[in-house]
Structure formats: C-alpha cells, structure tokens
Amino acid sequence: MTSFLDIHKTSPEDLRGMIDAARAMKEARAGRPRGALDDDQPLAGRMVALIFEKPSTRTRVSFDVGVRQMGGQTMVLSGSDMQLGHGETIADTSRVLSRYVDLIMIRTFEEETLLEMAEYATVPVINGLTNRTHPCQIMADILTYEEHRGPIAGKKVVWSGDGNNVCASFLHAAGQFGFDLTFTGPPTLDPEPGWIEFARAKGVKAEIERDPVKAVTGADLIVTDTWVSMHDPESAKERRHNQLRPYQVNEALMAHANPDALFMHCLPAHRNDEATSEVMDGPHSVIFDEAENRLHAQKAIMRWCLGV
Ligand code: CP
Ligand code: NVA
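^ thats the input. predicted complex w/ phosphoric acid mono(formamide)ester below
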C-alpha cells in the first residue's frame, strides 16, 4: 500500500513499471466499449473516494471510469459539500474516510492538504493536482509520447509559458525518466529553482532560455498550459497575458522544432492564448491522446498504490 504523491517521490523503476502496465492495459482492452469491464477485475470489492476542491473534467471522469473498468466503485465528493470545507480538520477527515474506502484521490489547493491527508490516511492517497504539482497528468503524457515516438529518454522537451504545477511535474519526470527539459517564459514565472535542481541532480539538462525560438530549436516535444491556473488570482490575468504573449505556441514557433516534434497541452485550454487552434488541431498535436491516456495511466497508478 503506497501513496502516489509526486513523481520525484516515486522511484524511476516504479514509474517505468506503471507506464508499461498502463500501455499493456490499454492494448488489452482496445476496441471495447468504454463501459466494458477489464478481463481481470483488480479493484473488485474496492471503494475509491474522489475528492475535488477545484473544478475538473478529465481527472474526475477518467478516475471514475478507470475504477469501474477495474471492477471497483467510486464516490465523487466536492470539498465544499464535505465537513472538510466547513472546519473539520484534514487529519480527522482522512482518518474517517480511511474507515470507509480503500483509496483516496484528492485535487486540492495547498500541497499541505494532500500531505496531511496522506499522513493520517491508512489507505493510499493519490495527488489529483495541487497548486504545486500534477503528477497524474505527466504520467499520461509520458505514455502518450512513448506511444507515438518510442522512449522519451534522451529527448528534448520544451515547456513554453508559465512555470506552473504541470511544468513542475514535467521537471520531476525529466529527472526520473531521463530527458532534457528547457523552460522558456518570463523570469517572473520561472519554475521553482528546486525542481530544476532536482532534474539536474539526476544528470539531465534542465535549462532556462528566455528566447522561445532558441528554446524550441531541436525540440522533440513542446508543451504548454493555461496562462492563468485555477489557483492564480483573476486580478493577475492581464499582467500574465502581457508577459506570456511572446511564448504562445503557434505554427511559426513550432516550425523551429524538429520536424517530428509533438505538441502537448494538459487541457483545458484557452485557445489562441497559450497555443493557437492551428497548433492544437494540427499534425503535431496529441492533446486528445493525452486526455485519453489519463484513464490508462491512472489505472496503473491505482493498481500500484493498492499492490493489485
Ligand atoms: N488536465 C486536467 O487535469 O484536466 P481537468 O482539470 O479537467 O481534470
Ligand atoms: N495549471 C492548471 C492545470 C489544470 C489541469 C491549473 O492548475 O489550473
């Protein structure tokens, strides 16, 4: 029984095992209706709580469908509807939920909420996004890259835009899966220095390049995300847009990457802000494969957590 809290806290061997398992599970049910059960039912008799303190489409639906395909049951809980949103402590909530369910997935604001939930839970806890990281997304992205282009080790990934929670988990993955990552964006929105150091300490190149054209030259994968995340104040929107406009991923920028470079975005997107529709719907884009692969990657993550 292990929690999946972050990519940098999980061993490279275990991460690789999850990606390979996800791919095998995806292939095993290819062509079946979405609601068809998997042949094996590793979550039979298991109950999974999915807690959301922020909005979600992909995370909510992919976890729910994934649990059901594996024979388990889910309950989707909104943080504001729980006593958690009305003063009950995270520790007490965690201890109570652990008496009812076998696994907890939580999407929350502060990382401390996730960590406290995991500390007091007697069942595994999965990070479904915090202000600081989004590990499940990047597991799906690694699966997606490798399905299209083979091993990601040694490749050059470029993150263009805000050095946010999704960027952080990409930096963790760079270290754990062995690829280089160049961040391009304004200095005020750099990723946390500690995450760059984490990747470098693992022996990969993790660089900051302010010039987006220089950054994407030789890139195998270009990734971006919304310019204003769910935890960012609405008042920061205009300033962020002004700072980030030079880092929009458009066809002119994509043209400087390798000819077979892929484009990723975790979604939801603000089309024609961080990336143009031409790129999002163009030949390099794998955004909907990423969304689908949330399902397969998270099924593997849940099995790893439960050891089933
Ligand atoms: N990418 C992602 O996590 O999407 P949702 O916010 O819809 O869950
Ligand atoms: N960076 C975005 C990701 C959404 C899936 C946010 O935190 O809002």
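The longest strand covers residues 47-52.
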